[in-house]
Amino acid sequence: MEWLNNILRNLERLFTNATEYAYANPKVGYLVVIFLLLVWLVGLIFDWKWTYARPGSWGGNFFLDLLGPIGFRFWLGVIIMIAIVASAYLYFRVK
User: Does 38 reside within a domain?
Assistant: First the structure.
C-alpha cells in the first residue's frame, strides 16, 4: 500500500503547488476560463447535447424551443466567442 500513499502524496503536492502558483500568478485564471470556454465551444460545434440541453431549465429550454437546436447552438457559440475574446483581452491587458 506504500505505492498508493505515494500517489496520494504526489497528488496532494501537485494540487498544493498549483494553488500556490495560481495565487502568485492571477492571470492563470484567465487561461483556465479560456480553456473551459473552448471546450464548451468545441462541444457546440460537434453537437454534444450536454453543451446546450438544459433539463429542468425553463429559460434555456425556452430559447432552445424558440430558436431550434441549430439556431440556439449558433447564438450560444457567438456568446461564447465574445466571452473568449473578452477573456483573452483581459489576459493580455491585466498586469
Answer: yes
Rounded to whole angstroms, the Cα distance separating 73 from 89 reads: 24
Q: What is the predicted pLDDT for the residue at 22?
A: 80
pLDDT of 21-77, one tens digit each? 888 888 888 999 999 999 999 999 999 998 988 777 777 688 888 999 999 999 999
- Report the C-alpha gap between 39 and 26 in whole angstroms: 21
Contacts of 27 (CB under 8 A, 6+ apart): 91, 94
pLDDT at position 21: 82
Cα 18 from chain centre: 18
Integer CA distances (angstroms), 72 to 29, 31, 45, 78, in order: 28, 26, 12, 10
Range of the domain at 75: 26-93
Q: Which three cell numbers mark 9?
A: 502524496
Helices assigned H by DSSP within the chain: 2-24, 28-45, 58-93
The total of structural domains in the chain comes to: 1
